[in-house]
Design brief:
This protein is of the alpha/beta class. It has a single domain, classed as STAS domain (Transcription Regulator spoIIAA), CATH 3.30.750.24. Helix content is about 45%, strand content about 30%. It has four helices and five strands, in the order E-E-H-E-H-E-H-E-H. It has a five-stranded mixed beta sheet, with helices on both faces. The longest helix is centred in the last third of the chain and has 24 residues.
C-alpha cells in the first residue's frame, strides 16, 4: 500500500493526514510539503496515526521536510505516531528532534504559535536598520 496524503486547514495550521507506508520509492510527502511551502504555509502537523510502516527512506523524508519547513521559518510537528513509528523514532533518537504530540488541538496550538512567532521575528529582523 502506498502513502495517501490528505490535508486540511485548522486555525491556520496545515494538518497532513497520512495513511499507508512511508518509504521507498514514494516521495509524495516531500513534494506536497514543498508545494505548500511555496504557497506560503509555515505551520504543519503530520498526523501519523494511520502510517503503518516507515523505512529509512521514509525517515529521511521526514527529516528533509522538517528541515525545509524550519529553513523557511516554519514549524512541523508529528501527531499520534503508531506504536511502530514511535518505537522507530525512539531507536533512532529522532524523538529528540521532532516534537511528537498525541492531541490534535495541542499540536495545532503549538504549530500555529511557533510559526507566527518565527514569522514576526523574520519581519522585525528584516525591517531593522543597520
Amino acid at each position: 500500500m502506498s502513502l495517501a496524503v490528505m490535508s486540511r486547514m485548522v486555525s491556520g495550521v496545515m494538518i497532513v493526514d497520512m495513511a499507508g507506508r512511508l518509504g521507498l520509492p514514494d516521495v509524495t510527502l516531500r513534494l506536497r510539503i514543498n508545494d505548500w511551502l511555496e504557497e506560503g504555509h509555515r505551520a504543519f502537523v503530520l498526523n501519523l496515526a494511520n502510517v503503518s510502516y516507515v523505512d529509512s527512506f521514509g525517515l529521511s523524508q521526514l527529516i528533509s521536510v522538517w528541515t525545509s519547513v524550519r529553513n523557511r521559518g516554519g514549524r512541523l510537528l508529528l501527531l499520534k505516531p503508531s506504536a511502530h513509528v514511535q518505537t522507530l523514532l525512539q531507536i533512532t533518537k529522532l524523538d529528540t528532534v521532532f516534537d511528537v504530540l498525541t492531541e490534535e488541538a495541542h499540536a495545532v496550538r503549538n504549530a500555529g504559535t511557533s510559526a507566527l512567532e518565527a514569522g514576526l521575528h523574520a519581519i522585525s529582523s528584516s525591517s531593522s536598520l543597520p
